[in-house]
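Render Dienelactone hydrolase family protein in 3D.
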Amino acid sequence: MIKQLFASAVLLLSIGVSHTSAQESFSVPVASTASERTWEVEGKQRKAIVYTPAEATTHPTPLVFVFHGHGGTMGRAMKSFSLDRLWPEAIVVCPQGLNTPGFLTDPQGKKPGWQGMTGQQEDRDLKFFDEMLSSLKQDYKVDETRVYATGHSNGAAFTYLLWATRGNVLAAVAPSAGAIRPQIRRIIAPKPAMILAGENDTLVKFTWQTATIEFVRKLNKCKEPPITEGLLHSYSSSINAPLQTYIHPGGHQFAADSVPAIVAFFQQHQLTQQKSESE
């Protein structure tokens, strides 16, 4: 079932509409549509905000999944990442998590989030991802070589899990303020990745995040030293799996000014490049 929250805008530069269940608003570019979609996954209703460019049914279109942090909402993720505005040619999907016990906070699971390891919550979130991807490919002309995932905090943990378990469908990933758990390290394969980290993060410790960066650098066979431009550090890879890091001086909050760099990184990578390199 699809409930339209926004209609196409032709004469307006953007439309701002309040999503009543989340009590939030976000903007939609001209000649585009954003809607709340629902799926039933093993008897549970799941939902996401889906932004679609005007030509998504007629032209091969990139697809980006954006996962909110623990206690977050799909509306806040859509607004914080602003990918519908910064990459209007891509389909952007911001799913809503279910109440989930947190790793570092909320052990009772009173707030929404995502599984961080295989087998948790009967893999309900991995199944949700599979269902979303399958249905979106049926409804739109998704470019299957350009499917991406990003997320913040607990959303980053789920992005790492997707990298490990659904890496065959992802061209690149961009986790923010997250760390790879030991279980995930054992099953993950090289993949172009951009990792965002705050030097003063007191929740997901910066030392945990730098350890993750070093693990990914070695996994992706990246060379040192990186090329540094401001907060961006780019490591070339001998197996076509480059690593880019965005190290900012802030804390655990999402660095909204990093999104243009995320978009640029995603636009540089597609699955065909990785497959041809490995052949």
